[in-house]
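Run Alcohol dehydrogenase zinc-binding domain protein through structure prediction, thanks.
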Amino acid sequence: MMGNHTATGEANSTLCSPDRNRWKGTSMSKWMQEWSTAAVGPHDLKLAERPLPEVGEHDVLVRTLAVSLNYRDKLVLETGMGLDLAFPFVPASDMSGVVEAVGKSVTRFQPGDRVISTFSPGWIDGLRPGNGRTPAYATLGGAFPGVMSEYVAFPEDWFVAAPKSLDAAEASTLPCAGLTAWFALVERGHLRAGDRVLVQGTGGVALFGLQIAKATGAEVIITSSSAEKLERALSLGADHGINRSSEDWVERLYQLTADHGADHILEIAGGAGLGQSLRAVAPDGRISVIGVLEGFEVSGPVGPLLLKSPVVQGISVGHRRALEDLVGAVERLRLKPVIDKRYKFAEFPEALAHLDHGPFGKVVIEF
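Sure, done. The structure for Alcohol dehydrogenase zinc-binding domain protein is below.
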């Protein structure tokens, strides 16, 4: 089923039944192009022609307009990340597109609607699915097929209406990077005007964090090893920039905040970087652990953890309701995602390689 790029959220799916083509939609070609790989590894990607996915009773068929890449997409392709992938595997999780056809029982969308994907299908609101032994990690471009395809057919609950204020490429950046920053700072972080927010780096999540925090009235401090990227972040509204390659960023943070520290930290580095964030966080502050650039094992001193009593929260994107809230905020605040470069569909391998160069914002593929 995944090889044909279809999925369903129903226990007793009708996707394979002979009467699946009862669409409230339009007629179109029965073929499409799709990127996939037959095995884990960086050199097995192939662009091939596939049958157009069929649409079940509760599904929508979406013509892909843009796909936003995350570094996770590259890791999944190269290492599998320990996931039980189905081959041929279609990569990537974040897309925007237009509804071409809908199943006969679909009520949330109709042909012509612009939509974006949700990163964690089935997580609509509230607590994350799963349990202590087996936390849920069923995402697009992982346990479920990805979106590097001209068309996708998924259950209607797996989509959210795209913001009218963004073009397709901009909208495609919201499902993972945008929602991760929103979930950390607003949904779970309860960000308030006047809070001091420290953002590590200038990637997609970081720049969304900068924009969301500034729109909320927070004071934003950016760290980077690039003077040029710090200048660009300041032009986006950051209040302060710290070059972590030339100075102790924690000491500089103390100076900038009169020893207060950071009320919120978007911890992108992981590894031993958590220890630096524990030094930098204000008493009763919050550290959102998002990235693993310095390793999958985090470490830090227990002293500041006990004495400051910060909240240390892991953020693995967020649920659909929060994504809908983000879409509303994007339209209301006129937020514009930062796109480092736009590639064409045929340039998918080049776009993946770009992720290794530390993009300023997002890398997007347009169809």
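Residues 1-26 have pLDDT under 50 and may be disordered.
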